[in-house]
Amino acid sequence: MLMPAPLRRSWSVQQTPLVIACLLLGTFALGEDKGNNKKTVEEIAKSARQSIVVVSISGRDGGQQGLGTGFVVDAGGLIATNLHVIGEARPISVQTADGKNLRVTAIHATDRNRDLAILRVAEKDLPALPLGDADKLAQGEAIVVLGNPHGLKHSVVAGVVSGTRDVEDRKLIQLAVPVEPGNSGGPVLDMLGRVQGVMTMKSAVTDNLGFAVSVNDLRPLLEKPNPVPIERWLTIGTLDAKEWTTLFGSTWQQRGGRLLVSGLGQGFGGRSLCLSNAAVPELPYELAVSVLMEDEAGAAGLVFQADGGDKHYGFYPSNGKLRLSRFEGSDVFSWRVLLEKPVAAYRAGEWNRLKVRIEKDKFLCYVNDELVVESTDSAFTKGQVGLAKFRQTVAQFRRFEVGKEVSAAKTDNNLVDSLTTTIESLPDLKDIRPEQLAKLETEATLSSELLRQRARELDERATELRRLAGDVRAASVCQRLAKIAAPEVKQVDLLRAALLIATLDEEDIEVEAYVRQLDRLASEVKSSLAKEHKDKPISDAAKLAAMNKLLFDELGFHGSRSDYYNAANSYLNRVLDDREGLPITLSLVYLELARRLDVNVVGVGLPGHFVVRHEPAKGDAQLIDVFDGGKALSQEEAGQLVQDNTGEPIQPEHLRTVSERQILLRMLQNLLSVAQQKKDREAMLRYLQAIITLDPVSARERGLRAMLRFESGRKQGAIADLDWFFEHKPEGIDLEQIEKMQQFFRENKPERIVP
């Protein structure tokens, strides 16, 4: 097992070449030489192998649920690993390199914050690894990692220390080393064979970057353990079998009156059930629970009329909406979604109270005491009640109740009004006197909830205002963009338009400053050409050679390799500042520089890789790959680029000259794609507004903007976007569907705004 870690852009320092270089050299002398006792990778692997163990845990069905690594730290029977490797309340198996099984007798020590655990086994006289001092590790120092990646037991990989980083409030050792699931808990050894760290996670961005907990964090656990006998460990958080029956896997645990669930269920769609063993009351009756999900993309809630197998009803939030489903079997074809809709009373990211009232001929489903649906579906009329989760959902449940009438989430309206009046009359925090809170303190639970509700309302209003500010800015930028690049503009100002696109995201760009910067580059090329050629005519070839020398040899402009999909690569100001960009943005710089030198260079939009073409007054045209340092491309090489990017052969239309407006639209589509991957609706709306400014008849983008406007709370803007379809009647668009969508927008509330 290995926990993924997000990676900030500033950390992305091309670790892969560093590791490969080390492996090719067969030596790891990048760090300071600390003595002549260093060993080779082979020697370290051989001597440490007997101290490495495979740590695995069993699932509910007795099969292996996870596998990681551990290593002996004390001959008396102590083995270090990660806490996430052993999980909680799961049988643990430990096996040595020679296949011997060690009997775990206790969890000797744990540290949840540092993801460390020490196991005690019954066997003695085990070969322990010596512990080093990670504070003395040098950046670039060679290391060796031993582990069991992907279940391939006792594997060895070499790399280097690339620094220390704060990850999730923990200081970890950053390693340039290939890391895979199963390396977790393995030792990080220096070239003297000493443990310097414990592998804990890999980067989610690259396979050649990992993180380790310092061995210095392991020492306190050895000095002051908190042992738990294995018999006790196996009962931590387990549910009382007299009260609950779980089905279809996942990990269900109990913590201080709450039920916690995590892990993918074994049922279709990751379904897992936790059914109450208590007798169900006679009709009518109610069941309720409060649920909090770690991620709104998940699904978890109530089940009722369950047969103890695959059949039951379910009422639960899913992807921010409330859903009522009937489950008639084990696969998707036997599942029936009876209702799914957004509900204003549902509070995303917070505790929500779900309730179902079951009567003779119907049942009613509520969220936070607001009726969501009344159903007369009668496929199932009896059965158990309980809880369910789907997909990879991590959720908490509290206050599960079943009875003739369960407690309501709401309180007396008069009391609510009175407390609300008190809250609204409160001065600023700095001016509040203790006696002013006395009335609220007498109803502390309700007052706290009302205060949080007021805070949510203010957060939502603040979010709306920030979005409006963004809308006003984007509209202003697009107005300026229209003046220099709209369809009616005959001569598009490509450079200024591209810089304006960047201002959609980066407010403080001085467009004219970057225009002058490119003018200076052109002047520098002209000056060098004048010195070299004096009064002689200067050919296009000489001008292009001088451009290439300045841009690529002297200034270091280059194509982005390690951070290709970063939005900054589409901002022309950042390309000029960082001298790094995408094929299209680097080509734009090249086009503008060539124009200033009176060289006829045009853009060519090869699928997946933009290039330029020099078209001289006399002679043959020449394709140029600016992304690859101004390399001249043959037709065959261009064809190979298209083949590599699309899997299809190059077509004549791929080699057509593209207009300045088409270049700008392609840049905006690149930005839109990045925003879509990040699910950044606000950025998507900005880019769509710019696209529609340049291409007002684009039906696809206008339809997408309508949906995004509705989802982000801009209901009237969404309706207005759909009006455009009725006014212009674009070909290939089903206006009946547009009418239905518009009617849906009119009759429904937008999704709740989440700051």
Automatic annotation (TrEMBL):
Residues 513-669 form the Protein SirB1 N-terminal domain. The keyword Nucleotide-binding does not apply. InterPro entries: Peptidase_S1_PA, Peptidase_S1C, SirB1_N, TPR-like_helical_dom_sf. One of its GO terms (biological process) is proteolysis. GO terms for molecular function: serine-type endopeptidase activity. Pfam families: TPR_9, Transglut_core2, Trypsin_2. Coiled coil: none annotated. Belongs to the UPF0162 family. This is Putative periplasmic serine endoprotease DegP-like. It comes from Anatilimnocola aggregata.
